[in-house]
Amino acid sequence: MKTDRPPMKYAVVSITKHGIALAAKVVAALPGAQLFAPEKFRAEAAAAAPGATHCYEGKVGDQIPALFAAFDGIVAIVSLGAVVRLIAPHLKNKESDPAIVVIDEASRFSIPVLSGHLGGANALAGHLATALGAQAVLTTASDARQTIGVDLLGRELGWTFEATHEELVRVSAAMVNDEAVALVQEAGSPNWWFNHANGRTGPLPANVTLFEKLEEIDVDRYAAVLWISERAMPAEYAARLAGRQVTYRPSKEN
To answer: What is the pTM assigned to this prediction?
Structure first.
């Protein structure tokens, strides 16, 4: 699995007059975002998002398939329970489902609901929390415990990663369960930790040991290896680390 992050397309969905007023702030915080609202609130929606408004007749649930197909992220100013029921029939997998964030009408909480890491919902929720003066509610283990998000490492620097779904699951479990993890950085900017996954404070997790070369590792001592490099992994290490390593490829600039 290789990941890259082109610019994201966002839809903002609101079904009430007060929610549409808040949607104006959300759209302003997400350049290019499009607002979707019921036809009966066309005037309010047009004022909230001039030139970026789409109004529909009927039920909001009927809009979900098109929104899933056309947008990378959906911000719903709708109750969390309602959003769960609306999106449930359309879920496929974490690699393709859009980021879903719910914001309450009082603008108190910004809650990632779906695709928190790979889809970017956690980062989106954090961005909106800052823009709205709200509290981001992050429940993914790596964010709750301020450890390394295996599928986010270096993303803000334009890095990509190479791993199967099974490898991501196994390595992520090792990270959040405090198993011994080796992080080998042979390339790329060393200044990734404090901007990682919406920002981190304090030192690296205690279960992570840093190395400068893959060959420095006694691989049998580590449950997982995070390898940041521009070279191909030597065959001996590839065989010994099969299923428990993730490779990261830094961008040319970082």
So the answer is: 0.69
* Residues 15 and 135 grouped into a single domain: yes
User: In angstroms, how far is CA 196 from the centroid of its own chain?
Assistant: 11
Shared domain for 131 and 199, answered yes or no, is no
The DSSP annotation for 144-190 comes to HTT---TTTTTGGGT-EEE--HHHHHHHHHHHHTT--EEEEESSS-S
**Residue 222 token pair:** 């580590």
Cα–Cα distances in angstroms (integers) from residue 244 to residues 34, 100, 126, 166, 219, in the given order = 41, 29, 30, 9, 10
In a domain, 5, yes or no: no
**CA–CA separation, 233 vs 214, rounded Å?**
9
Q: Provide the token pair at 157.
A: 């620097």
Q: What is the pLDDT of residues 207-226, one digit of tens each?
A: 999 999 999 999 999 999 99
Sort 192 into a burial class: Cβ within 10 Å, 0-12 / 13-18 / 19+: buried
Reduce the DSSP state of residue 42 to 3 states and report it.
helix
Same domain, 50 and 170: no
Whether 96 contacts 32, CB under 8 Å: no
d(Cα 116, Cα 158) in Å, to the nearest integer?
Answer: 18
